[in-house]
Amino acid sequence: IFCILLKHLAVGNNETFLDIDHVAEHSLHRKRRKFEETPRVMAPYFKRKATLSLLPTDILLQAVENCKISKEGAVLRDMLWVFSLSQLKKVPMWTGHNCLIITDVSEVQNIEYMPPINSSPTSLSVVHETLLMSKKVAEQCQQEQIIVTYDLAIAKIALEIQSLESPLLDNLFINLGGFHLQLAFFKAIGKFIDGCGIVDILTESEVLATGSVNGFIESKHFNRCKRIHPLLAG
Q1: Which pLDDT tens digit goes with each residue over 108-136?
Q2: What separation in angstroms does the CA of 102 have from each of 92, 98, 166?
Q3: Does the pTM exceed 0.70?
């Protein structure tokens, strides 16, 4: 169905109307928009047998020690905010408080778009090509490491390729998107509160249906977890 707008043209005292048939014929032959793919030659990548490799113990111990140091500083800042909130007036909330006491020395970043690839995102060749592109970007920006964010299904393939191609892609940090990170966080909380009686309170108060308990604990329903977990935190 074409919506044809008759355009009124006034030429002196004579009124001229566009020919309806001409406009309809012109609309039928109008060029449709389409995605113009940038030609890109990708080398095929074939899956190889993976070898089991474990992280050295000293690296794990160093990571745990760094987490402890960061945790101590975060706990001290939180205690300072709680004490200020109870003793002083006009104290900002947690986010505003941290913005006031923490100095961000990060440089201003430029956001640019990578060339699109018109292929299946879970293809081994496509994932391998994106890893090589990310490594090239890190070299051009003179960075030792670079963060690459993938969906869960693609991240599994990327981690496998990174393990097979080690040490070529060791400077890439493969990160999950915010959606899957939040789902993993909800599932961790669900494991913690399972069997403590909170679920029974939710079902008896008709906040959560009995048949939806497993989906809430296992974090299978994002909207339900997003709605109920803040209620439990309050």
Answers
A1: 878 888 888 888 888 999 999 999 999 99
A2: 14, 6, 37
A3: no
